[in-house]
Amino acid sequence: MSLSGLDLNLVLSLRALLEERNVTRAGQRVGLSQPAMSAALARLRRHFDDELLVRSGGHYELTALGRALLDRTATACDLLERVFSSRADFMPGNEEHEFTLLSSDYATAVFGAELARAVHAQAPGVRLRFQRTPPDVTENTATMLSTADGLFMPHGIISGFPAVELFTDRWAFLVADTNDEVGDRLTMEDLASLPWVTYQRTYDAPAARQLSMLGIDPRVEVSVDTFQALPFLVAGTRRIALVQLRLAERLSGVAAVRVMEPPYETVPLQEAFWWHPVHTHDAAHIWLREIAARVGAAMTASEPGRIAAAAATEQTSG
């Protein structure tokens, strides 16, 4: 369908009608009189060949199509707002701007903190708003990205969108200090026999697939939706957990756990910043991507040290 024959102002009216489910309130929301909003509803009904809103007692309810359009219309409005707020230039030192970034708690703690410091140094008026990545991001990636400025996520989860490389990481295991079933080194038998704490979403899918290929089917005892809770759910138990090494190093000392090398060569983790193509040529977004790439490159240059090497040094000094 060609957009040239459509009045895009109707998108705003449609969103207001579907969310308010009241012609008068919808009109007040978008600055239209009640007769004008009624006329807009009539045009929308003709266009979709559907009532969209039907009276039920003293109120209106959405039809099946109206319910289907509810989220799509909100996404369309957000995307249109981003399109028409695009800028040809961006002066970071003078700007008042907010970026919305989707991120796991791991990426926020490891990368977001560094990014926030770098952004503040150049643009004190710029705000970063980190939001937890929705669990269905792999099913509705385009929709998610159209309502935010970007997404921090490793390769191997999504594809087909522009991205800039950030930093590399490795996987490590957490074992309780009190767990005397595990010696100085983890074994494949330990992974198969001990109970696990796991991150319950799909962002560690490549690591999980590798375990499956190695014949390890983790016996999951606890699952959580935050990486930073893993050490506390391991401490004082027989459980083990797979966690990113950079995060494990930052959490070192907050819980009575050991950080241990996997008994196999793990798939490296390459974190990236993904965005919707609508942002590609926006000056503010280009600036943000350049800052993110520089911060990521600096982090990669200071790659986390080998756990085994640190342990060996400790034993030697002891």
Overview in brief:
Helix content is 43%, strand content 21%. The protein has 318 residues and is an alpha/beta fold.
List keywords for this structure.
12 helices, five-stranded mixed β-sheet, 318 residues, 12 strands, disordered C terminus, alpha/beta, 43% helix
Describe the strand arrangement of the main beta sheet, using strand numbers: 4-3-5-12-6
**Total beta strands:** 12
Low-pLDDT residue spans: 307-318
Secondary-structure element sequence? HHHEEHEHEHEEEHEHEHEHEEHH
How would you sum up the global shape?
elongated
**Helices and strands: which structural class?**
alpha/beta
Q: What does the average pLDDT come to?
A: 87
State the share of residues found in helices, binned by percent. 40-55%
The biggest sheet amounts to:
5 strands, mixed
What separation lies between the terminal Cα atoms?
74 Å
**Helix run count:** 12
Q: How would you portray this structure in words?
A:
Helix content is 43%, strand content 21%. With 318 residues, it is of the alpha/beta class. Helix 5 links the parallel strand 3 and strand 4. Helix 1 crosses helix 2 and helix 1 (9-20) packs across helix 4 (64-84).
What secondary-structure arrangement, pairings included, does this model have?
Layout: H1 9-20, H2 23-30, H3 34-48, E1 53-56, E2 59-62, H4 64-84, E3 97-103, H5 105-122, E4 126-132, H6 141-146, E5 150-154, E6 163-169, E7 171-176, H7 188-193, E8 195-199, H8 205-213, E9 219-224, H9 230-234, E10 240-244, H10 245-251, E11 257-260, E12 269-274, H11 283-301, H12 307-317
Parallel strand pairs: 3-4, 3-5, 8-9, 8-10
Antiparallel strand pairs: 1-2, 5-12, 6-12, 7-10, 7-11
Helix pairs in contact: 1-2, 1-3, 1-4, 2-3, 5-11
